[in-house]
Recover the amino acids of this structure.
């Protein structure tokens, strides 16, 4: 209801500009709240093994294209570039996994790059298959994160949920869900800073689901 009414007010040309702007703020904050609720539901289901798994053979390259298309079709914010790069386009081996969860995993990583680089950045996504291990990589040209935070992330520890004086934004619930999805697919995840700047996340998943 909040989203519906605020959108109507925002799009009504007969209303003052200030009112429409206020409605836009309400709509955007409501969208954030909706996403937060969905994330909380998903992380709880994953933590307590309540999320049903729908394992099937997937084309990892097609999975990436699907996620990228969703971002582009929904309107990528100004200042950001998102592309498929450095990918083996001749992958013939299927990856067995849950399409919804793996889609969400990649979505959260891309959204993390957007959220924590408000000045814009270039985001690249790639995938390769080697020795029956599927490696997804999401990298950006943004500000990266502190080495101390990297250590926490790579040790499966949540980092502080507040911003520092250098405006380093938190990497919280979205990455927690990513780690949970990787775990239920019996994979591993590694975060690293890019020289001279940026963040890279590599996820290694076995091509066969062990569950």
């Amino acid at each position: 209801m909040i989203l519906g009414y605020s959108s109507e007010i925002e799009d009504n040309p007969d209303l003052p500009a200030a009112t429409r702007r206020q409605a836009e703020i309400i709509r955007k904050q409501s969208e954030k709240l909706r996403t937060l609720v969905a994330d909380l539901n998903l992380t709880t289901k994953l933590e307590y093994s309540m999320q049903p798994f729908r394992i099937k053979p997937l084309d990892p390259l097609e999975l990436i294209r699907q996620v990228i298309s969703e971002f582009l079709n929904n309107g990528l914010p100004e200042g950001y570039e998102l592309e498929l790069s450095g990918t083996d386009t001749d992958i013939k081996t299927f990856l067995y996994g849950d399409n919804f969860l793996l889609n969400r995993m990649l979505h959260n990583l891309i959204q993390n790059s957007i959220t924590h680089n408000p000045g814009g950045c270039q985001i690249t996504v790639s995938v390769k298959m080697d020795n029956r291990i599927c490696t997804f990589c999401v990298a950006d040209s943004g500000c990266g994160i502190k080495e101390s935070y990297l250590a926490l992330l790579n040790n499966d520890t949540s980092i502080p949920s507040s911003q520092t004086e250098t405006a380093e934004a938190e990497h919280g619930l979205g990455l927690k869900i990513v780690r949970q999805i990787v775990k239920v697919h019996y994979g591993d995840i590694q975060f690293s800073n890019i020289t001279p700047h940026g963040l890279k996340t590599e996820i290694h998943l076995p091509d066969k689901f062990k569950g």
Q: What stands out?
A: The radius of gyration is 19 Å. Strands lie at 55-58, 80-84, 95-98, 121-130, 133-140, 188-193, 199-206. The chain has two domains: 2-47, 55-206.
